[in-house]
Amino acid sequence: MVKVSVIGATGYAGAELMRLLVSHKEVELVHAASKSFAGKKLSEVYPSFTGCDIVLEEMDLDTISKDSDIVLTCLPHGASASAVPALLEGGARVIDLSGDFRYRDAGVYETWYKQTHTAKEWLKNSVYGMPEIYRDQIAAAKLIGNPGCYTTCSILALYPLMKSGVIEPKGIIIDAKSGVSGAGRSEKLANAFCEVDESVKAYGVGTHRHTSEIEQELSLAAGEDVVLSFTPHLLPIKRGIISTIYAMPKDGIAEADIKEAYAMYKDEPFVKIYDGTLPEIKHVTGSNNCAIGFVLDKRAGRLVIVSCLDNLIKGAAGQAVQNMNILCGFDESEGLNGTGWYL
Amino acid sequence: MVKVSVIGATGYAGAELMRLLVSHKEVELVHAASKSFAGKKLSEVYPSFTGCDIVLEEMDLDTISKDSDIVLTCLPHGASASAVPALLEGGARVIDLSGDFRYRDAGVYETWYKQTHTAKEWLKNSVYGMPEIYRDQIAAAKLIGNPGCYTTCSILALYPLMKSGVIEPKGIIIDAKSGVSGAGRSEKLANAFCEVDESVKAYGVGTHRHTSEIEQELSLAAGEDVVLSFTPHLLPIKRGIISTIYAMPKDGIAEADIKEAYAMYKDEPFVKIYDGTLPEIKHVTGSNNCAIGFVLDKRAGRLVIVSCLDNLIKGAAGQAVQNMNILCGFDESEGLNGTGWYL
Amino acid sequence: MVKVSVIGATGYAGAELMRLLVSHKEVELVHAASKSFAGKKLSEVYPSFTGCDIVLEEMDLDTISKDSDIVLTCLPHGASASAVPALLEGGARVIDLSGDFRYRDAGVYETWYKQTHTAKEWLKNSVYGMPEIYRDQIAAAKLIGNPGCYTTCSILALYPLMKSGVIEPKGIIIDAKSGVSGAGRSEKLANAFCEVDESVKAYGVGTHRHTSEIEQELSLAAGEDVVLSFTPHLLPIKRGIISTIYAMPKDGIAEADIKEAYAMYKDEPFVKIYDGTLPEIKHVTGSNNCAIGFVLDKRAGRLVIVSCLDNLIKGAAGQAVQNMNILCGFDESEGLNGTGWYL
Amino acid sequence: MVKVSVIGATGYAGAELMRLLVSHKEVELVHAASKSFAGKKLSEVYPSFTGCDIVLEEMDLDTISKDSDIVLTCLPHGASASAVPALLEGGARVIDLSGDFRYRDAGVYETWYKQTHTAKEWLKNSVYGMPEIYRDQIAAAKLIGNPGCYTTCSILALYPLMKSGVIEPKGIIIDAKSGVSGAGRSEKLANAFCEVDESVKAYGVGTHRHTSEIEQELSLAAGEDVVLSFTPHLLPIKRGIISTIYAMPKDGIAEADIKEAYAMYKDEPFVKIYDGTLPEIKHVTGSNNCAIGFVLDKRAGRLVIVSCLDNLIKGAAGQAVQNMNILCGFDESEGLNGTGWYL
Q1: Closest Cβ–Cβ partner in B205, B244, B280 for C231
Q2: Residue A288 near chain B (CB below 8 Å)
Q3: ipTM of the complex
Q4: Inter-chain CB proximity D235 and A231 less than 8 Å
Q5: DSSP type of residue D77
Q6: Pairing state of beta strands C290-297 and C302-309?
Q7: Which residue of D has its CA nearest to A298?
Q8: How far apart are CA B178 and CA B186, in angstroms?
Q9: D171, A171: Cβ pair inside 8 Å?
Q10: Which of A33, C79, D84, D204 is positioned for an S-S bond with D208, CB 3.0–4.6 A?
């Protein structure tokens, strides 16, 4: 049993993490901190936890780091950069779900997040928590920057193609659509039911932070600077992301080459490459899977890739648990092997 | 390990049962039969099962009963009555999810289902599969009639009140609202997205079959014939039922008496009695829980009870697994102890 | 052309009123006041008004009353009681959409709204704005208290039955379900998309203010004090209410008697009595109609009535326009004769 | 008054057309034909028409053409090609909402629709019914091929840019998302509520018929063959399309050049060009508007255009009425000037 604490347990990602952790056989939950609800029972904030006796606490970094082998932080960006160093110095290993420890270059972070990074010195020790690419480094990490939801969906779809050189690194377009839980639990009018229901909108066109995270990893894969177009959209659903990605296949590339590139995932427990069909959001909802399919449109000279995941699971809490499993030497699927819900 | 087969594995209840069974640690799935999709992989019909190698078969009753300790039948009513006797005679124990084996009196069935019961002789051996009431009989049963979704939601809310005599047995009104998955997977126009979305309708007013099932069990609890009003409604959601129930408290009954009646559930793993608040559908979605709250409206002289469950889990597949666990002597919560999804 | 102003033009009811008024052939819009958005164009707040040049103003009661023949006030309750007297004294006629001028007895208001009524002296001059009951008084009114959404749906269904004495005045139960726009445009977490979607909840059980408004009108119809149970529910839809109402038919009452009672609506432009079928929310969405159907369940001894309307139209803005048309001597359907949307 | 008939009045586009026509002041409806529901009242099929006495008829082409000045045909493709010639020969003018009369080259139709065109000889007399491009020809037409929903949304966004040469004609990507009503009223499992709700899928990637219609019109604008990528997606909403379009601006093109190109719409009643913001589906739902906004992403070298319309109105029935208004010399906005619903 590993001693685990969660900071920021009552946002949507935090609550999903709690849901996964309470069923995890190797985890002893020691602290669950919530700024807004300290003193309340988790089941008062999320009645789906009825029967579960967890009481939310104030965030006491000393106590938490001392009592925990692993701390999962679900704080807003900026707040993580403030809290994480103390946890690490206190001896805990940290998996951070914010954007604060995902970057190799603090300058990129500061440009896209438009704020100073207050824990730059820790970036060099941080591992980007995408097991399909960095499994070995994750196993040895003290600090893991858990990837973003849109970014996981995009990088998993594009990394093998970029790495194997079957697509042009230029001109990639990612048209991504996400459920509302990706915006977190807050009282913004923009996320009110009547504003979201029966509508779809694009937002953050050309400026969404996840662009820089995707470009970072794809540039490493390509061995050259990748600049791409990323357009997120808000869908009237709770969970799930579907990204439709447009790339130019290199000359002479056939379907078989694409399949061969994706064969890098053949032993991955949570990446599902479709053969001849395309994934839909409901194929992955409730699971830690990322499902990927593609169409090579020779007429238009485009490779169209469709990638789906559950933003709260493979896009946040599930991937964090997967990273924790690797870090602790557990079966990588422990606590994550449920089938998706479909309904 | 117990050898389990499912007949009718590709309707919504059947697929949910498959989802629960593939994660159940004590179950070896031996056959999954589907009339519509025999020969296909389950993952072709429900891609959420991607990575799961189950192949759907024709319904061969001899082979299935010979190979299985337990068979779960998710057939339309009438079809179950035809298939189940052969399974029982072949030596399997059966948990039937249709209405065919829920009645003590074939005449009631024939009145409400408007068809002849073709396996009347088995009714006397069938146990009504509601563990909170019939746990001991379930443990010893050869044939279990797994309760309906609306009925579970209503009976769990009313049985303790009726049994303890805190409410009048007359004049009960159940205003129930269900998600669309309760109507099964079919191509009816009435269930098309554009017909259901952004609307609600009442249906089967005064004639819905579940009325008779609720009345059967409440009459037994009351020791007299209970006749009630039951109105189902179709909601634009996938899963979940909320029943708002109106009863007349007997003279002098106070809140404490209601709570005391519900105390019969204090050790039940899957019934959650709220104290001072009311459950919402999302509190139970994805779990095997039935959550119940109430308001004693003294001004109007009414007890208003709100009862929620997930129609595919506690209202169908989850309750079937719970019954199977009891039948097999497993921990009753095995495979069912996940927290609800909330999102 | 009549000169019309709207105060509170940017809440959901206010915006719906603006939508109806800009298409109304007899209306000249002179002022549209909005506390939150004064100085902005209406189309900036609701881009569906793109191309419409209305600029929102501060609420200047003197100017508004001087410039307007009719003022429609869409303010929170309490705020209306403060603003309306000045408008009336300034010479305008007022249709108020809040609860402030719907009551005959200020004490009832103060009990249910839990606040002092600051314009009690105007209640005796106020007409309850339900044309089907008070058309003549409306035509002559200086001040109209426009009915609530739930109340319109309930009163229209029950008034003829109560008036004609075909049902018992005691023991009535109204199980009402409403779309989220009924809660207004605000940043409450309870109305956030992820909290509402795929769920339903009951709220305000036994305490919802509309109970008292329904009881007031039904008591007048019955000639005795009516006390009833009213339970509102929140649906994951934008617009629309469906009320399922349970009443006890008096001895010997047959379907024909119910139909005869409802015949009082035979010339009403906006009440649709169904014959043998039941209305669904989508039958009325987008229209000013209230659609009513019923089932006489002799087995259970209940009359079950289903009543549907669009809460923003017949339940608020549309009824206000209907009242305005009567007040001004226009065709009562002017600006309201569109067919419902269905989709 | 013009005498108008509708053939195919009970599909979703047909019903929307009926909704618009019953409120149209210059229209006398003479026949409404429906294969599935002949003999029934329209209000039995769509109860939102309650109070409207239209009786559906069999499709009798002779009678219809003889009695009507204008016939609007909402038939499946292929069926229109069979029926329309008789209507034209009988003397009626025809606005056809299928794909059958949208093409200049029957070969393109036959390639994309995978069937023989049985009325090729009429294509040369048919006018493509997009008023913003072909207003003058529409006014004089005997036969109008009313554009598709996706195509209207895409062509209106791209035509001015292509015509004015501010974007490269190559490499355009249209990522389009549509509500379910676009798939028509039918009993397909793929459109069942539980299959669509809380999910999104791409379909017809590289093969959707509307691709060819968009390419036809943009090629004419560009003066060269345009080949593009078009990916439709199914959204869990009833109405509305949002298309996110990616084009490469030509060297030196600035925002002002884009705005100037779109200035061609400055007098259009139904095209709304946003200045600095982006449209959302809910901005146009219920209106005949197409709303267009853009972001020039200099970093990535892309022009991102977002275009929204209501697929049943500007994408089908509303555009047909607009064409009819032009054909008849009515005010082009007659029957179409309602503000969008927002809610």
Answers
A1: B244
A2: no
A3: 0.97
A4: no
A5: T
A6: antiparallel
A7: D206
A8: 17
A9: yes
A10: D204
